[in-house]
Amino acid sequence: MTGRPAWAAHLAPGMSWAELDLGQGGTITAVMGELAGAAPDRPALHAPGRGWISRGELAERSARLAGRLAGAGVKAGDRVLCSAQPSAALVEAHVAAIRLGAIVVPANTAYGPEELTHLVRDSRPVAAVVEREEARGWVSEASPGVVVVGLEVDLPDAPVPLLDRAEPGDPAMLCYTSGTTGRPKGAVLSHGNLLAGAHAVRVAWRWTEEDRLVLALPLFHVHGLAVGLHGTLVTGGSAVLVPKFTADAVLDAVAGHDASLFFGVPTMYARLLASDRVAALGSLRLCVSGSAPLDPALHQRIRESTGQVVLERYGMTETMLLVSNPYEGERRPGTVGWPLPGVELRLAGGDQGEILVRGPSVFAGYWGLPDAAGLDDGWFLSLIHISEPTRQAEI
Question: Which phi-psi region, left, alpha or beta, contains residue 87 (left: φ > 0; alpha: ψ -120 to 50)?
Fold first, then answer.
C-alpha cells in the first residue's frame, strides 16, 4: 500500500497509519481476557441494582454462564438469541455466549410474535435468553426444541469448557436488518469484524481505559452493542448502563460517575436539550450522535448550550461504523465525515454518488443467503452518498 489513505485523517498526531493493526488481540473476548488478567479489579460496568462490576468479575461470571449454556447443549457455532433491556445480566449472557464460540442473535425487545417468530425460524437458535415472559412463550412456540431461559440464565451449573477459542473469521453475531426492503435478513458478523470495528473507533475517538461511557442505548443493534459495549471491552474503559433513557438519568450518570463519553441518537439530544440541566454535558470529553441525521440547527443549539460540538458518524448493520467526523478538526453539521481507519470507499458510478465500501469490519454475507449481499471482491454497496465539493459523506 502506498500513499496516505483518506482515513489517516483520524489518527492522532505522531501516529503512523502503517502501525495500526485493527486485528490486534485476535478477538474481543481474547482482548478482554488479557485486560482482566492484567488488572482484574479495574471497574468495567455499572448497572442499577448491581453497582460496579470489575473486569475480573465480568470474566468470572461470564465463564460460569458459558458453562451453564454448554451444559444445556450449546456449542461453538450454535445460535443463542438474546432479547432484554440493558442490564449487567444481559451483558454477562452476551459475553458468555461469544466466549463459548456461539453466535449471538440480538433481538429487539419491542418485537411482537410475528417478528420474533421470523428471527427464531430463520436463525434456528439452540438457546434463547429472553427477559419478557410472553416473548419466551413466542420463542418456544416458534421452535419447540429451543432451550429458553430468563435473563439470569437459570440453568444448572456445569463444568466450564475451554473458552475464547474462536478465530477471527468465525461468526460471532447474527444481526437482523430492519427489513425496509423485505423481511429482515441476518447479517453475519465475524469476531474479526467486531474487533476491527471496535479498534477503528478506539483510534479515531482517542478512546482509552481512562474513559467512562454513559451507555443509554439498547443492546440489540450495532450502535449500543458493537460500538458502545464492545468498544468499552476492547479499550478497557468502563461503561455506566442506563437501562431506560431519560434526560435526568443520563445527566445523573454524567455527574455521578465522572463520565467522559456519551453516545446517543438525535431524539436523545433533543430531549437532553430540553432539560434545564443540559449544561452538564459540557464536562464530557466527547459526545457522539448516530443512527439518524442530526439536524444542523439542533447541532448548533447543543453547541451554544453546552459547548459540545457533537461528532456525527454513520454505519450499517452489515458494516458497523464506516465514516466519522474527525476528533481533531472540523465537525461539519449535516455530514458524517471521513472513512474510519481500515475502511475503503469508492464511487459506484452514476449521478447519485452511491459508494461501495470495503474493509475488515464489513460482513461476509447474509445468513442462509450467500448471494444476497452482492459482494464483489469484498466491496459492499452502502446507503451513503458523497457530497460535492467537500467530498465528505452524507446520508
Answer: beta
